[in-house]
């Protein structure tokens, strides 16, 4: 069963100053048109490889499908406009990566315990 | 049926895919480095005219391209990278490798960045991504706007870009790119190939390009509209062989009197549905034989496309493409009606794309072409030397293309 958007939470490394972000900011960060949040913190997007939380996030926050997002990143990579973002296999790995990586912002299933990272509110 | 052994390159690379994947991302001194690549192999069969310099009326496998790139993120704001590309499509490309792009890109803020080097030109929806069959539904982009044989014209420049994205709060955002640089066309492109018909041998073809692209990501999620404009000052040099007895070869030079292109476009995506349409007009006044004569061409093209992804493995698409040419010089005795087959090329296309996995796709595509665009001073995709029996007014084309990327 596909997850609902409410089942996804946005997490960030402790170095990220903001407590809340807008959907537009999240979209910009994950579509590589923004490299910092409005508070000035430089951020790095971290994606899940697949699964219900990933599909919900991509649809709700980015307005794309998984295939559409992949094509979008490929169009950046193969024109010299950027590198592929970090993509990890599971919620747990994303949490661990975000916890130890300065500026990292990711998303995981809302039911996950997320020790060592902060959860960002959506404005 | 002609088969170049080099055409087997792509399938062989496809087989190597799983073993390559793990080696493509690593770090140097803590900085990420990524290596990516793609390859595609096609087969074309046309019932009538030979198309895009392929011997397609007998079935041709001469539809191959390969690209490999590496990118290096030096700081949060600065990355560098380069891509090498080669292709063999009939007589186009002829396997001569090109430095496709080699870029240093620094983003000062989200709304302002600069990139320089050999830079892919942002022009319309697909100007910079026209080689990437793996991100397109169709095996061949609409040729009215993205002619494969004239790939070099709007693809890249040696120079620099200013770019950025400006948020407009509740009105979405504006993305802009302004650029200037030198264009340098391959000697193995469609235009030099066309001139061969009459004895022209182009040694170099290129010049200054200046242009801009502005696109509005509208507040309606998934709707993008934009416009691109470019002016060029292009010079070609080489020799011309005159069929006297014995043949005489003289120096040849041509240069732009006026050369501009503009394009308007829109795209809407909603879930698995994608709709797109673009209009391009290209105007070219070219002084030839060192200002002795002037030839002019007014080319207008547009397409409308739709695609829908039904499953993870299947996507269907279709487009309708219209290309119309009007010679604007005194040399060409032109049919007065746009309905004449040598004044237009209308193409109805349907495609089935099968994604075998994330890296590998197979496409089956049918083209039903009305008209051939004739033989004027600018190519239409049909060349007289490939069709010595004369051009037929209609062409049906079957394309099967497989592509791989990592």
Your description of this structure?
Chain A is an alpha/beta fold and 123 residues long. Chain A contains four helices and six strands; from the N terminus they run ββαβααβαββ. The radius of gyration of chain B is 21 Å and the shape is globular. Chain B has a 16-stranded antiparallel beta barrel with strand order 2-3-4-5-6-7-8-9-10-11-12-13-14-15-16-17. Chain B has 406 residues and is mainly β. Classes of the chains: A alpha/beta (123), B mainly beta (406). At the A-B interface, α3 of A face β2, β3, β4, β5 and β6 of B.
Whole-Å distance between the termini of chain B?
Answer: 31 Å
Instruction: Tell me the fraction of residues in β-strands of chain B, as a range.
Output: over 45%
Strand-residue fraction of chain A?
Answer: 15-25%
Classify the oligomer.
heterodimer
| Overall spatial form of chain A | globular
The whole-angstrom Rg of chain B is 21 Å
Write out the strand line-up for the largest beta sheet of chain B, numbering strands in chain order. 2-3-4-5-6-7-8-9-10-11-12-13-14-15-16-17
What series of H and E elements makes up the topology of chain A?
Answer: EEHEHHEHEE
If you average the pLDDT of chain B, what whole number results? 92
Main features:
heterodimer, A: 123 residues, alpha/beta, 6-stranded mixed beta sheet, 4 helices, 6 strands, 33% helix, 21% strand, globular, B: 406 residues, mainly beta, 16-stranded antiparallel beta barrel, 3 helices, 17 strands, 5% helix
In terms of topology, how is this protein built?
The complex is a heterodimer of chains A (123) and B (406).
Chain A: E1 8-12, E2 20-21, H1 23-30, E3 44-48, H2 52-62, H3 66-77, E4 86-88, H4 91-100, E5 104-109, E6 118-122
Parallel strand pairs in A: 2-6, 3-4, 3-5
Antiparallel strand pairs in A: 1-5, 1-6
Chain B: H1 9-15, H2 17-21, E1 25-28, E2 31-46, E3 63-73, E4 78-89, E5 98-109, E6 112-120, E7 156-167, E8 173-184, H3 190-196, E9 200-217, E10 223-242, E11 248-270, E12 273-288, E13 293-309, E14 314-327, E15 344-355, E16 360-370, E17 394-405
Antiparallel strand pairs in B: 1-2, 2-3, 2-17, 3-4, 4-5, 5-6, 6-7, 7-8, 8-9, 9-10, 10-11, 11-12, 12-13, 13-14, 14-15, 15-16, 16-17
